[in-house]
Design brief:
- Three copies of one chain form a homotrimer.
- By secondary structure, the first copy, chain A, is of the alpha/beta class.
- The first copy, chain A, folds into three domains: 3-89, Udp-n-acetylmuramoylalanyl-d-glutamate--2,6- Diaminopimelate Ligase, Chain: A, domain 1; 157-300, 3 Solenoid (UDP N-Acetylglucosamine Acyltransferase, domain 1), CATH 2.160.10; 309-338.
- Chain A contains five helices and 39 strands.
- The termini of chain A are far apart.
- Chains in contact: A-B, A-C, B-C.
- Chains A and C meet through strand 4, helix 3, strand 39, helix 4 and helix 5 of A and strand 21, strand 22, strand 37, strand 38 and helix 3 of C.
């Protein structure tokens, strides 16, 4: 597919300047693009690349617009604009909307219009799959589930019994929705499993990364509100609730019954202790551990700084002595003040 | 199913007070329960909920018993009692004890009585699956494995060759038992793979969470003793041994050849370095890194505290200066002592 | 299989001493070996075991050679030698080089000589699988993929469209190659998914652990150079590049567009922030977080030291006060210097 500068601008209702007939057929980064490519500058930090790029068209913010003299599209949100343009060029997979004959589908399941079900998938009793949803190969869905419209469910996904998935949801390979929460009661000598009787409810427009796990609730449900995006290898424990538009990077984890607000940005490897609450509009930096509820929007961190190991050993010894160090300092100050 | 207060008390040999004929048909949390529900109070911190709950029956400890005047069951371990009651109400899945015709089962495999094998499962040569065990859809078991009685193996589980699983074990979706340990020997220029010739041995009454991985041993085996419970996304490396009744929360990891004792409580995201030993009855707080063997029972922590990022930046700079700070303090003290 | 001391020495071109006809039939650790076993000592720390071992043959370095008086093989790299010997004893799985009749293979896929494809595998359009490669049960490969020669792909692996895998690559169960990178652009009110148009390229002789995930690039590709070894549960984000001979232990993660050099040793649970560069020959200790580019080879650490929780609480309070503590110290020093 080829598309011209003026056609792009018209389609997305944007300003442009340059040769309206210049055509591009793919997207590329500024430093690898050639004249057939459209690229973008989202972060002024990289604006020096504008001098050397050979991109046929560049998407820019009004602020950076004067730094580039080639064909350009000017938009307040260049990265959003780029995402939309890139979607035009995404090779459509031309998925056949068919049910593969090997799939094992309960007689009581209800399958909507234009649904695709891939090879070796298994669909349980009374489960509903709404129109235009695609299940690729080897998807397992339990009984009494409800999968919304226009979802994309990739290979090896497991959705356990009674879970509900909204519309336009993407589930990446190997993610597990609705495994039992980790509930154990300690009897005198051994552990008793606490039945996990809730389910998982995922809102519209959510995305769940590869090999991420979201456990079902103990009595109530585990809930992702609309437009929540989870990266890969994330663990969401039972009874967690995540507010709309919150995004979490890979390998982060939320322990049981914690509540995370709306529009939070959670970095990679972050941990949130059980039963805590994190309010709206909180940013958690990578590998932070949240050990108390956060009631004030803002950015939070907890890791120790990176050091050469030989230097780190000395700092680590001192961290253990910190309380004593502080007390020794206080004593000196007291002596000083007496003089 | 409905069950009355006196029938519950009789069945579990507990004390009760209130209307013996009051019936409940489900469990619920104190704040969402209504008169048809049975709830519980395990932590006195939440005892104020007793004033407002509409639960038909509440399970309480003797200490909290006087704080609630409705129908109640009094038990020393309310959470254990609740786990047992909740199990009564768990919807039975009415699993057909059948072998799905699509399953590929070696002629030399030995399948016990009342075993279920789900669609698209694969069972290797000489593997034994004992009575009453249920494999849901799409389970892969290698050759020479032994799976005990009354196990529940969920979709997408992989058990590699020669592993042994005890009785009453639950394996959650996507967990991998017996992948190769990470063994590499450095030749002059490149890595040589070290064959992983051991297996994984899992005791009775264990539970392994979704997408958790337990590697086979290099020469000896990787071992979980009885009643070990692992949450989701955990990594257990080759030749690790975990003692009976130890539980580990999500995303924790144990490196090669480390030994963990009995009755340990390991928080989420914890790491244990290879070849170390952790004795019995140790609690490791979330995201702690164990860098030396622990020989004394107790609770251990290592993370840096959560701070607002602007404040954290200053602390982080100072952590790097700590050794110098301590030396400067010592010098001042010395000068002071000379006066 | 039995093999004698002189035959082993001849096969690997090594020195030996002892009874040339002594035969062994398996490998074992020094402390569990008997006379039928061959063992090794790679780390002098364990040399006391040489006094008590009952191993029939021991592989030793020249330095440790005099500490053992039984049958021995002397080699500069005992662990490498051991890896090669162990491979001789590894039970060959006698995999039938057949395509299981249940596999669903596109008519346009090209399958090489002596390729095995296990039950319930799915191979997409135009994908090429080269000679001698083994796919075990339930492997999913998308369209336009290229899988090299002599690879071993274990159950439940998912390789998404257009990814390229080199020769002699091992992919462990449940790993996901080529899921979408985590790319989101923030529109006024909600997130827009950024199409992930690149792929994953894996070089020769690489190994990817169980349930590890490697995301496809946004525009360019995510690349593992030759002889890269990744343990289990690792997350590699879009557009990452990992240099040849680098190894990463379990649960580590590299965020988007970061570049890691050659011959790096990355410990368990390590995090590397997006867009950073780590040069060649860097060692990162377990659970370190790399927050700035590393330009100097060496070893780096960042975690806080393990402490008993009661003691840790005090240190944690002091860490938050560190900037103030440092300023108070500076003030005292200033007063002192005025005297």
């Amino acid at each position: 597919m080829k598309i011209s500068l003026d056609e792009l601008a018209r389609r997305f209702n944007s300003k442009f300047s340059g040769n309206p007939n210049h055509q591009v057929n793919a997207v590329a980064a500024l430093d690898s693009a050639d004249t057939n490519h459209i690229s973008f500058l989202a972060n002024s930090k990289y604006s020096s690349l504008l001098k050397t790029t050979r991109a046929g068209i560049v998407i820019l913010s009004p602020e950076n617009s004067n730094s580039f003299h080639g064909n350009k599209i000017i938009d307040k949100y260049p990265y959003v604009m780029f995402a939309k343009v890139a979607a035009l060029f995404q090779k459509s997979k031309n998925t056949l909307r068919e049910v593969h004959p090997s799939a094992v589908i309960s007689d009581s399941a209800v399958i909507g219009k234009d649904v695709a079900i891939g090879a070796f998938s298994v669909i349980g009793d009374n489960t509903v799959i709404c129109d235009d949803t695609v299940l690729e190969a080897r998807v397992t869905i339990g009984y009494n589930c409800h999968i919304g419209k226009n979802c994309l469910i990739k290979p090896n996904v497991v959705i356990a019994d009674e879970c509900k998935i909204g519309d336009n949801v993407i589930l990446h390979p190997g993610c597990v929705i609705g495994a039992d929460g980790f509930g154990l009661a300690r009897d005198e000598e051994r552990w008793i499993k606490v039945p996990q009787l809730g389910a998982v409810i995922i809102g519209d427009d959510c995305e769940v990364g590869a090999n991420t796990t979201i456990d079902r609730g103990t009595m109530d449900d585990t809930v992702l509100e609309n437009d929540v995006h989870l990266d890969n290898q994330i663990q969401i424990a039972h009874n967690v609730r995540i507010g709309a538009h919150t995004v979490m990077a890979g390998c982060s984890a939320i322990a049981g019954s914690a509540k995370v607000g709306k529009n939070c940005l959670i970095g990679g490897g972050v941990g949130i202790i059980g039963h805590l609450e994190v309010c709206d509009n909180v940013t958690l930096q990578s590998m932070a551990l949240v050990t108390h509820s956060i009631k004030k929007p803002g950015s939070y961190s907890s890791v120790s700084p990176l050091q050469e190991t030989s230097h780190w050993r000395k700092s680590a010894v001192r961290i253990k002595q910190l309380d004593k160090i502080a007390k020794r300092l206080a004593r000196l100050e007291k002596q000083e003040s007496k003089k």
